[in-house]
TrEMBL record:
This is Membrane fusion protein (Multidrug efflux system). The chain crosses the membrane at residues 55-76. GO terms for biological process: bile acid and bile salt transport; response to antibiotic; xenobiotic detoxification by transmembrane export across the plasma membrane. Residues 1-47 are annotated as: Disordered. It is found in: Cell inner membrane. Residues 93-307 form the Multidrug resistance protein MdtA-like barrel-sandwich hybrid domain. Keywords: Cell inner membrane, Cell membrane, Coiled coil, Membrane, Transmembrane, Transmembrane helix, Transport.
Amino acid sequence: MTDMAQDLATDDRHREGQRAHDAAADSPRDSAGTQPAQADESPTSVVDKSRRKPLIIGVIIVVLVVALLYFLYATFIGSRSVSTDNAYVAGENAQITPLTEGQVAEVAVVNTQPVRRGQLLMRLDDADQQIAVTEAEAMLAAAQRAYTESRAQGSAAGASADAKSAAIPEAQARLATARANLDKAQTDFRRRANLEGSGAVSGEELTSARNALAAAQAAVGEAQASVNQARADAASARQQEVASRAATAGVGVNEAPEVRRAMARLNNARLALQRTVIRSPIDGVIAQRMVQVGQRVTNSTVAMIVVPVDQLYVDANFKETQLGKVRPGQPAEVISDFYGDDVVYHGKVVGFSGGTGAAFALIPAQNATGNWIKVVQRLPVRIQLDPKELREHPLRVGLSMEAKIDLTGGRD
């Protein structure tokens, strides 16, 4: 540095001497009054030269010191953290959408209003849902009554089958009697027929015996038919009993298929009635309320948004060249433009986005072109904030932040 300063001082003296020589050559015949003036300027020039030298040396020293300090900061301090001012507050907002359709009867909140979980937000007109519940209750009662009647029919069918089964022995007894009468009639007819030639039996007696035999044969046929009919009636009654009991066998009234179907319809109607009352699913602040009393909404209408102000986080968009040493679990400090440097939020890195902002754009960049220009991409890094600090100094979604991550901190 000293050699450089000396060289600069030598150059200055050379230029001053050259200017003095040129001035003397241009005016050789100057008056005597001018020469004293030149003599007076010489001490001033000498003083300026003496001041210029330390000034130049001081500037050089300052530049070198600044360069050294920057080098030391970048090497030992700047490399221990990364920071960005491209960061914004975000949160898992709750979108309030009715799960049933109807006309809005009441809206209990307004924008910016704090709400608690379970607090009433809005109410729909429930006349249609009340009617549906009443109808479903009637259908359930009918199904239960049908089940009871089915069980009663099974019992009645069983009694009928038992009665018809008991008629079989009676018919069989009548058949046996008819057969005995047939055997007697046959014997009597044969005996009289054998005596017909001897004249001991008149023709009238033989005719009477023949008629009795025919009547006995007819009685046996009728008795046999009665037995067959009794057996068929008993079998049919037993089948009816089995069919009647099968519908209710092994299940209670609330387990019967028709009853369960009716109960499902009733539960669905009651659920639709409950859904006419819409409550907040989380603690937060109401934003973007878009429904009014009298408006008809469907299950796809966004009524409002609840912002969980005590569970917000920061999405910091770091350059890809800054993320080589960033890991989940590292501590972070975040400053909001809303509060300034007086409020510092503390948090930690919880993860990285699955892609850069450009990757999820509506029209992604087409880099496979001839006029491609490389642009440093930014990757969102999520920073979880301390809920206690959020309660003390509330934030809102979308606020600008400045984030700094300590690369030497702990990692998950």
